[in-house]
Amino acid sequence: MSLPVPDPRDRLIVALDLPSLRAAEDIVSKLGDTVSFYKIGYELGFAGGLGFARELIGEGKKVFIDFKLHDIGNTVAKGVASVAHMGASFLTVHAYPQTMRAAMEGKGASPLRILAVTVLTSYDEADLAEAGYAQGVDATVRRRVEQAGEIGIDGIVCAPTDATMVREVLGPRRAIVTPGVRPAGSAAGDQKRIATPAVAIRAGADHLVVGRPIVASPDPAAAARAVQAEIAAAL
Ligand SMILES: O=c1ccn([C@@H]2O[C@H](COP(=O)(O)O)[C@@H](O)[C@H]2O)c(=O)[nH]1
């Protein structure tokens, strides 16, 4: 059985990495019906963004809570249960076996999908070595995806440059979500393992997370439509 094909508009997830509710409301209003799926991470989340997430869900938008949970199992399971009650669609945890098991237990029968973050897209080989990992990026991602698959995780967050390998290891039934997406000509910023929207989709990504190239654009709706058009052409 394969993963249900996402609605084309749901393939683009806009990262609301913004400092205030006012800034987030402004971008969401500029994006209007163009964007159906938003990601809320540390910056907005710690500036009142969880209430805003509930509002977005109430207005029919999908919400991805990107807090990359990692703690003792009991704390992870109870935190995940709270996010499940909010009605969020996706939640990230780090891809450590104990954490992934606790998250899958905590979501219970809710439709919340737990995504395991493999190796952050801002990390290259040197960053991983500096953090004390003996294996390189490819081997670490592969091992984490194998373990996530054994645990029955709902999906994986990985770099678009890892997506082909992740799809091979994970099979067709679980979601692949890729940040580190950069339309041609846009600044990489702190991202190190990046690809264009077309490359990410052709590599097997189901959803692309795009933040700064859209929210820092002078015309966020036009930037979002351009990414959506590139996704549609690559499918
Ligand atoms: O490996 C990861 C996991 C999460 N992210 C998040 O995605 C967005 C990317 O934003 P850009 O502005 O498009 O770079 C951001 O919220 C990260 O926290 C990631 O980049 N890499």
From TrEMBL:
Enzyme Commission designation: 4.1.1.23
Identify the PROSITE patterns for this entry.
OMPDECASE
Q: Which reaction does it catalyse?
A: orotidine 5'-phosphate + H(+) = UMP + CO2
Signal sequence residues: none
Keywords of the record: Decarboxylase, Lyase, Pyrimidine biosynthesis
- SUPFAM superfamilies, per the entry: Ribulose-phoshate binding barrel
Does the record's keyword annotation contain tRNA-binding?
A: no
Taxonomically, the superkingdom here is Bacteria
User: Any idea where the Orotidine 5'-phosphate decarboxylase domain is?
Assistant: 11-227
GO molecular-function annotation terms?
A: orotidine-5'-phosphate decarboxylase activity
Q: In which pathway does it act?
A: Pyrimidine metabolism; UMP biosynthesis via de novo pathway; UMP from orotate: step 2/2
- Keyword Lyase belongs to the record: yes
- Active site per database record: K68
Write out the residues that bind substrate: 17, 39, 66-75, 121, 182, 191, 211-212
Q: Spell out the Pfam families in the cross-references.
A: OMPdecase
InterPro entries, sorted: Aldolase_TIM, OMPdecase, OMPdecase_AS, OMPdecase_bac, OMPdeCOase_dom, RibuloseP-bd_barrel
Q: Which family does it belong to?
A: Belongs to the OMP decarboxylase family. Type 1 subfamily.
**Quaternary structure (record):** Homodimer.
Describe its function.
Answer: Catalyzes the decarboxylation of orotidine 5'-monophosphate (OMP) to uridine 5'-monophosphate (UMP).
For this protein, the record's NCBIfam families field holds: PRK00230.1 (NF001273), pyrF (TIGR01740)
Q: What is this protein called?
A: Orotidine 5'-phosphate decarboxylase
Q: Which gene encodes it?
A: pyrF
